[in-house]
Amino acid sequence: MKIHRGMLLLSLVLAGQSLAAREYYVSSTHGDDRNTGTKSTTPWRSLAKINQLKLQGGDRIWLMSGDKFLDAGLVFLPDDQGTAANPIIIDIFGGTDRAIIMPPRGQHGISIQNTAGITIRNLHLLGRGPEVSDATERDGVSLWCDLKDGRKLSGLRFEGLLVTWFYLGISIGADDPSYSGFADVVISDCTVKSCLADGIVSFGRMPGSAENQSHRNLQILRTTVSQCYGDPTLKGPHSGSGIIMAGTKGGLIEHCVAHDNGGGTNDRDGGGPVGIWCWGADSVTIQHCLVYNQKSTPGVQDGGGFDIDGGSTNCVIQSCFSYNNEGYGYLVCEFEGAAPIVNATVRYNISWNDGRARGQSGLGIWNGNPTAASCRDVVFHNNLVVCDETAGSAVKMGFESKPLEAAFYNNVFVRTGGTKLIDIDRHTDKVIFKGNLYWTKQGLAQWRWGTESFSSLTEWRGAQGNPETHNGQAVGHQADPKLDALEQGHAATRTTELSAMTAFLPQPGSPLLNAALKLDRSLLGHSSASAHDFRDLVLPPEPNDIGPYEQ
Fold it and tell me: Which residues form the Right handed beta helix domain (predicted)?
């Protein structure tokens, strides 16, 4: 058999990599730093021994299951060089319990600086407590890139981590003008709990754009963030969010949960916190996620579920569930100094009893700084908002500066208490409503449209811009949507419940069934109309239903 010379060389290289790969074992209970550390029977005792090594692709670090390491956090520097295809791996041995890293004051649990090609699994990163975290601002996992050449360092994976009692749970940061940063970072099946400021945060050089971002293709999957209440020493910047994705071109947040965060700061300026959100990013998708019981500083806005915020382009929130949050269930928000929001799409989501404080609502748009940028191509379609008397309205839009161009198609807006459905204070000529259903349980209803108010859909159609008309014909509905478990709802705590939810399903005879307004797909936001509904069911051929469910 003839062997190709190139294949032979490749085989020799791979064999050399395999032979060169090393294994090290560490146990705080059974180890000794005088040991070789290369066998499970002769482990080292301290993580400091690992930090002294220059690791390479294929090397494996094994930490004893259940042991607690107090001497140091793990530190990876540029001379630790794994690759995405052949990473350095850190995992546990000798059991199934996570190994615990509780570093001294002033150290991150894991610090990765200007390098990548590392996979870390099954660790509990335990900080020294909120007070210490507040003083030192150290994170459970800290990724930092300040290379000057614009490179994207590829291949970082974090699997099955538990992160508690740090300042930030996991941070992914960069700030060089060359837009150097990280690529293909995956955080999966992790839990971040009781960190002081925020749960998981990425950020990059600002301002970014659709073409220039520090990071590329960040993914956060099947991860839960809770009880990150916010830094009480902060007087201006917000904290207390679950997951924030910024500074990236390409991002996915999927099957994640944020709950019981926020409400612990002295921030009086707003701007957050929010459960799961993106800002200053391009092509981020948030889908199949759940946010509940999010709070904000007493007397201050925000504390909502989901948000596409300032400077975001081509971003989508779809098939998510938000309930019992103080702020907006779903928000599109511009702030002063950010690039314009362009092509933001919110579709096939449910907001149930959001807007628990300060007159906020289920769906919201805000452009409140006098010099904030104008925004365009903002679309909300096939969402359901159910709110009681606590909310200010089902939809609220606030403008102090340039208007946002926004459209609302085939949504359902329901009040089980209260009367105000739509609350838009100005720039109504830039806002489109078509094919939506409106209903209040008590019968009385209100649409605020600039300086006027209307008490019926028929009256509102005659307002400036002729809302709920299409090609000269009346569209939209003011009727009981006939939904299952309308007031009981479903207090989900896991994203796996969403695909099986029956709360809010249209009953037989519902005016929502087969009643969606047929629109050109180009009007329905990012890329095209979603091919799946709230429960991730494939949409059948038209006619489709109004709202997030397709029967």
Answer: 184-370
Instruction: For residues 7-11, give the mean pLDDT.
Output: 49
Residue 208 has pLDDT above 60, yes or no: yes
Residue 235 to residues 153, 239, 268, Cα–Cα distance (Å) = 35, 10, 7
User: What does the pLDDT average to over 504-529?
Assistant: 86
Residue 59 neighbours by CB under 8 Å, 6+ apart: 21, 22, 23, 24, 53, 82, 88, 89
How far, in Å, are 19, 74, 91, 112, 199 from residue 84 at the CA level?
Answer: 18, 19, 17, 15, 25
pTM, two decimal places: 0.94
Overall average pLDDT of the 108-113 stretch: 98
Residue 447's closest CA among 403, 395, 410?
395
Amino acid at 182: F
User: Domain ranges in the chain?
Assistant: 21-196, 234-240+265-282+297-551
> Which of 323-350 are b and which e, b meaning 16 or more Cβ less than 10 Å from the residue's Cβ?
bbbbbbbbbbbbbeebbbbbbbbbbbbb
CATH classification code of 21-196: 2.160.20
Tokens of 259: 């709950």
Place of tokens 């207090």: 491
From residue 68, alpha-carbon distances to 41, 101, 123 in Å are 18, 6, 10
- Reading phi first (left if > 0) and then psi (alpha if -120 to 50, else beta), residue 481 is in alpha
pLDDT of residue 492: 98
Residue 411's contacts (CB-CB under 8 Å, 6 or more residues apart) are: 363, 380, 381, 382, 383, 384, 385, 436, 437, 546, 547
Amino acid (one-letter) located at 114: N
Give percent of the chain with pLDDT exceeding 90: 77
Going by C-alpha positions, the residue among 155, 187, 184 that lies closest to residue 171 is 187
Task: Give burial (CB, 10 Å; 0-12/13-18/19+) of 116.
Answer: buried
104: number of Cβ within 10 Å: 13
**Tens of pLDDT, residues 429-472:** 889 999 999 999 999 999 999 999 999 999 999 999 999 999 99
Task: Give burial (CB, 10 Å; 0-12/13-18/19+) of 420.
Answer: buried
308-364, pLDDT tens digit by residue? 999 999 999 999 999 999 999 999 998 877 888 999 999 999 999 999 988 899 999
